[in-house]
# Entry
Amino acid sequence: MARYSHPMPDIGEGITEAEIVTWQKQVGDRVEEDEEVVDMMTDKATVPLESPVTGKLVEIAGEAGDMVAIGSPIFVIEVEGEVPDDVAEEAEAAEAAPAPKDEEVEKRIEVENPDPSDQEDAAKAAPEEPTPARPEPVEGRKDETSEYRASTSSARTDSGDSSKVLATPAVRKRARDMGIDLAQVKAAEDGRVRHADLDAFISYSGGYAGAGKARADEEIKVIGLRKRIAENMAAAKRNIPHFTYVEECDVTELERTRAQLNDNRGDKPKLTMLPLLITAICKVLPDFPMINARFDDEAKVVTRHGSVHLGMATMTDNGLMVPVIRDAQGKNLYQLANDIQRLANAARDGSAKSEELSGSTLTITSLGPLGGVATTPVINRPEVAIIGPNRIVERPMFVTQPDGSERVEKRKLMNISISCDHRVVDGYDAAAFVQEVKKMIEAPARILAG
# Structure
């Protein structure tokens, strides 16, 4: 028998360590060649590690949430016979390689939906959104998502007395959901509690009925993507002096233009508000290069980027990610719409590549129909600005007529928020930038002009 020790490989991009997220195999399991053993998370993405040999897993480096340095052993396989020379040499080289330079890149992931469409479109689109395929459960396997869901779905069971009460499953479920002890409900003559008896109990108990049963306290280990979010959010707030500027925009004409484009789109993708906003932003950015920039804290160097690599905050089942639209300034509305859909799906189903989740120069983030009146988004470090369109609402406002008179009309209004790094961006520049974006939005013909 020979033992093969698999080192944590150098993934590049300045990564010095990775976090254990999920063990696909447990100690004592047989592992086939090229079979996945463990999922590791870096600052960029989750990376599966496979075994180059066949054998029995005899040692692992730690549990979910533990960090493993590049070059350190991550798992040990007991092999029948000898370890192939090429595999042994590759492992030795990985262990002997010097640790990469520690260039920490903080990726802050905003808790928001990237699609700032109006409420009606969002409601119609939601049921049609495909559900990402999830892997089949593996015996003995536990991941952070299932662990979290299991811990947060503690069963609320009836008390001992309630379990002896005669009632249908539907009545029991309703009582359980409402936090009502069936033993306190007066039953019919046959001793069975029915829905009408529950209704009577609710009516007569009035203010004496509690809001619900107390739930047990929960302790959830913060690991994986949630741990990365926590670290990056804290680093962004700790290192960046934020300020936020908010402006109200009349998007009545923009929404009318979007509807007209969708009515005549043919086989092109349906447009949400986001491609139009991105186009307006990209048209304005050349006059405000300090907005599309990244700041290296250690080197004290600001890089003003000529291309707009736009990050868009995306909600996924496993947490929040920021996929990046490369060279957004060179794409038309329909190309942007395709990229938005493709990257959002890739982030949600876990197929997004590392290069699709890094390198953004400016981020846009929105809560869509939940957007509220205004937001104060946290900057996606090392960027220096983040833009947050808010919810579209209809309100009466004074509108100036061609003859100079005013009248009250129902208009569609949307606030745009921008948070900036005050070390790089002055308040005047942020306000001037948003005002130019507002002019573009309120005269949509300028967005469509070449």
Observations:
- The two ends are 70 Å apart (CA to CA).
- Residues 333-349 form the longest helix (17 residues).
- Residues 99-120, 122-160 have pLDDT under 50 and may be disordered.
